[in-house]
Input
Amino acid sequence: MTKQWKFSGGLTLAAHKQVTVITNIPLPKELIYPLLQRADSYVQPIVRVGEHVLKGQIIATANNNLTPPVHATSSGTVTAIYPHLIAHPSGLSDDCIIIDTDGLDTAISESYHQPYQEVAATKLRELIHQAGIVGLGGASFPTAQKLRTTQPIHTLIINGAECEPHISCDASLMQQHAQQLIQGALILQTILAAERCIIAIEDNMPAAQQALATANQQAVVEITTVPAIYPTGGEKQLIQVLTGIKIPAQTLPAKYGFICQNVGTAYAVYQAIAQGQPLTERIITITGSGIQQPKNIRAKIGTPIKHLIAQCGGYTQDVQRLIMGGSMMGIALGSDDIAITKASNCILALTTSDLTDQQATLPCIRCGACADVCPVQLLPQQLYWHSRAGQTEQCQDYQLFDCIECGCCDIVCPSHIPLVQTFRASKGELIIKAQRSAQASLAKKRYTQQQLRKQKAEQAQQLKAAKRKAAIEKMKAASLAKRK
Output
């Protein structure tokens, strides 16, 4: 076994995983596509209300490399483009394209591509962009853009370390599509011209490990297991475990010659390049004690959560909370009338008994337990005190933006303080302050430029007036001289 290292902190958590066969489900009656794709990246609709669209047809695009296009995931008619609830921590509504499916699931003609070995890397990156592929591990960063790095890459890591409890969609994918996943990894390795490709999975996934080993009999990639310590699936934590190299905060792994891609992303790349299929569906885990029959489902992007819940037999009677993502880093939802996106890997329904352990928040006793488990070696208690006092600048001094919001500090806090929630709020305040400062700076720059232009115009006018006056004086002098 290849030597492995440890990262600071982390926790060993109960897995609560139910790796099931991937279930195909009936078409939903309605598909919903938010125009907000990631952070503040929007796409613009290129379809009209009343237009009939086919599966795989581009319905919205931003025409830039940072926002891949969005495709219709089934055939149907665009019935509206209007504000609808989206998966967002604030529970806000935003513009969405609504498509009523026609039940036929008619697709546009699949594009035929040459074997990837005969296609230039630049063309492969463009095909991946046009297929709408983003990181399917949850970050949703455009895959093609990640592959456009100008840094030399020596190691590609395919991340199968699905470390967060409850989520098992990646394990199911590895078990059922190991061959295609490895082909996707080889395509990515070719694009990056990387010397080495590693598929890393946690050591509590023996079936997935066996499936990959069977598909990898010619040893074209390295397959290795890593300890099931949360958050090993974090990009920088995984690199440290596999290589011992600690990537500094706010530094991209590419600078050190590494690129990480999720196993779902590698599978999507295979579908795009080898089969000419855009990203129209993903594997998602529907689980938790609030679900009658937990499953891993092959779901079309844009499917309302309520449709997925119905395919799992519905909720249990004591369901209390719905979360998109895992129990550690997911966001609570106020409704199941929200569609899944490319970033949605899990829907978790918790019951009353799951929530009874939650206790009232008590004052911080500065025990330091939060610092002991922090995987990026922050001082959460200091961040908390400054956040509570509104001292956001001091939060920056304590590297607030290095926090990966893994939730380890929340779990171990004996005072039950929602630390990550506090840090998210402080980050939001700082981002707003930075935006306002940038706007004020821009306004000041514009005012200064306006004043300079005004001053130049006045100087030019004064010069012109002086010249006119001099000319008049000259004419007067000439006239006087003529009279004499």
